[in-house]
Amino acid sequence: MPTESTSKLEKLKHILHGYKRIAIAFSGGVDSTFLLKVAQEELKDGALALTIQSPTITEDDLRDVKAFFKANTVNYSIIHLNQLDVPDFKHNPVNRCYYCKTIEFTSMAKEAKKHGIRWLAAGINLDDQGDYRPGMRALKEIGVVSPLKEAGMSKEDIRYYSKLYHLPTWNKPASSCLASRVEYGETITEEKLRKISAAEHVLKDLNIHKLRVRYHHGNIARIEVAPEERKVFFDTDIMDQIAKKFREIGFAYAALDLQGYRRGSLNETLDTEIQRKVKMNIHVSR
Q1: Taking the model in full, what pTM does it have?
Q2: Where are the domains of the chain?
Q3: What is the mean pLDDT of each run of 10 residues along the chain (286 residues)?
Q4: Please, which residues bridge with residue 63 across strands?
Q5: How far is CA 139 from CA 73, 97, 105, 274, in A?
Q6: What is the CATH number of domain 185-268?
Q7: What CATH number labels 3-164?
């Protein structure tokens, strides 16, 4: 790895020591796991992991979180909440992520203060500046800090150092909350989230690694897999098996997205004017 990246790691350590005590929003993903590991080694008891447990969190992510806590000596707290109790989130507007992050990070900030910790950090890196991400505004409003981004770290840097730190997440595919699979305007329910989770496990059991099952109006499951994994569906027996299991889960229809997985594909339906209004916190109905 270039010397420049080595200096980024030293800069990250310096940034964390500047906070002295810090709470890490820990999801079990690549970024937050790396950030927590470095914070734990550098600050010892000054690092606190905060994890949200809710219907929007995948079972796999929660399992990884608990595995990390079991393998590492770190202070942590698991916060139980349900975003579906908040109408602004449940009705699934195009700025749903803003409401979700506001709920989650407000809860974590309060928990951090109970432990006498002022600073709350998220695993945001340099590569998180693209796409349509209204949740970033919520973090800014709450005062969440981003040590990885401040240190100039990209996803590539984080995966590289995660491997050196022997973290099992170094090559973990990107993950996101289950609500991000539901088409905008489609009311989010626990039943829909459970169906999405169950359907994704069907695909994981076929050794498909990078995937999403998107929920569309009409009880339709749109399957996205990494472009290089689309060949799995060339087998008609596999397609019949998936269709059968998806129907058993409760989906009326299952369809394969021919373009394959890409982050934030549901945002492709948003026009630029809607995105502009959301970023400026102008009410949008859709």
Answers
A1: 0.88
A2: 3-164, 185-268
A3: 73 97 97 97 97 94 93 94 96 95 98 98 88 83 97 96 95 91 96 97 95 96 96 96 98 96 82 50 42
A4: none
A5: 27, 11, 7, 21
A6: 3.30.1340.30
A7: 3.40.50.620
